[in-house]
Amino acid sequence: MILSGVNMLGEELQATTVSRDYFSGIYNAVSNMVLVLSLKGEIEDSNSAVLELLGYQKEKLKGQSIDILVNGENGSFFGSAKRRLGKEGASARWETQLVATDNKKIPVSCSFSRIVDKNDKLEGYLVVAEDITERKETEKLIVRTIVETQDNEQKRVANDLHDSLGQELSTVKLLLTAINIDGQSSDGKYVEAFETCKNLLDKSIENIRAICFNLMPASLEKGGIEAALEELVHKQGQHDLIGFTLKVPDKIPSLDKSLEIAIYRVTQEFISNSIKHAKASLISLHLFLDQGFVQFDIEDNGIGFEVAGKEHHGGRGLSTMSSRVKAFNGCFNLSSTVGKGTKLSIRFQIKREDGET
Length: 357
What we know:
The protein contains 14 helices and 10 strands. The protein has helices spanning 2-7, 11-14, 20-29, 48-54, 58-61, 67-71, 77-88, 133-183, 188-215, 218-223, 225-237, 257-278, 307-312, 316-327; strands at 33-37, 43-46, 91-99, 105-116, 122-131, 243-247, 282-290, 293-300, 331-337, 341-349.
């Protein structure tokens, strides 16, 4: 409807019974942001929603490149939009962010269409952007709820395994040892069977402990993220397959337990990928504070990969890590160079005990 209205401007609009005032009322009444662009991508007109949501004055926007609204500086939004339009046909739709005058980034669902005259001559472009802030917050809340539910269930299973099966196996081992002491059998078959049972029990107990640690390490519950990372690095380093360096501050503010678990799970996933796929020999981890934010960088010296290819073709592990971080309003930045390794940076704003940031 909006696109049809814009295309009626000029001679075609004058030939209809629809007045300019009537069209202008519709144009400014819609809640979505609407911008009319020239063939060069310059803003020729914008409706009231653009001015209200982004805080710009209409005269300040006129003649400016649409790129200033997308990333705060001259960028490639217009060129990218035209390429998308060429591939997708009559209109292109995708999600991006618009930047307000106060530098606040507003997530939007954006459509980009051609404006043509009655002879199908291209006159400009139409951008319609829907503010999807509430939808994004709802999506984050859903993901966070799912993540926290999974973590709570893993914690419960870990506790059950440790308190029931783990304790029972330890008791069986003690009883078996007592039987051997009382029997003092010299029968070679008996001794061999006893040692086999004992070794199997030792291995089972070790496996139970490893499973409990991977599900929910006690150090994370009792000592926080620093202690959990130190224990994780220590356990992984015992296998002599890969080296680790870990730098953490002497003291960091108390973080929400769910956030600490999210950081820990992302670390587990990254290390697992580095060992299985990257053929890395060294992983470096650095947790630090930066102007009201806590940032965690983790980097390997593996074979690297094409990030774009992984994001668009599979890459379930990357998607899982990204979802965990974004569920806590964190920033997720993954970079990789083939032959040089991979680096992940995640960043979260620290909340004070009173809930303020």
